[in-house]
Amino acid sequence: MGADVRTMLDERARRRRDHPFLLWEPAPGDGPRRSWSYGEFHRDVEATAAGLAARGVTAGDTLIIHLDNSPAFLHLWFACAWLGAVAVDVNTRYAEDELAHAIALTGAVAIVTDPRLGAAGTAAAAGLRWVARLDPETGTVPELFADPATVAPRRAPDPSAPLCVQLTSGTTSRPKAVLYTHANALWAAKVGAAHWRLSPDDAAAVGTRTP
Fold it and tell me: What is the domain range of residue 61?
């Protein structure tokens, strides 16, 4: 049986629980710097997965992630992988018509957005089951944190399962949806780490640009 994204996160959290995993460098005025160890990140992903499940997100559902760089983006992306849902990360500079196209194209059930981006109150978002909003000060979505004990039983790892959707640039026509599997993501991570010459002691830094 092969590995998937959740399998890899579980394994890293077990073996390297206290090792730094993520460093958050927010824009000035957006709150303090913060770091997550593998164990802390795993905990927040599990809590986010529970929050999504509590709102009815199940395996196969698609979720629009309408966020700039933030811890929440990663929490949600991994939480979708945890549940078997499909993350759709869209350009945060989309006009409402472009966002509506992305929602219709992917069959998204919900959206998580930064309230400063103006999408939460649009007609495109109003047609979804629910909208959740980033807390800019913490870079997280506290309203989606729930008790991990409420998450559905673990799914069997499936490397071929859908993981996320990337939308093309739309140079010649409307953007098209490109589906990535868990295997695609794990292979890209392996090759990327080799090309960037990352070592086990390295950690990722996430930051936002100044508005």
Answer: 5-207
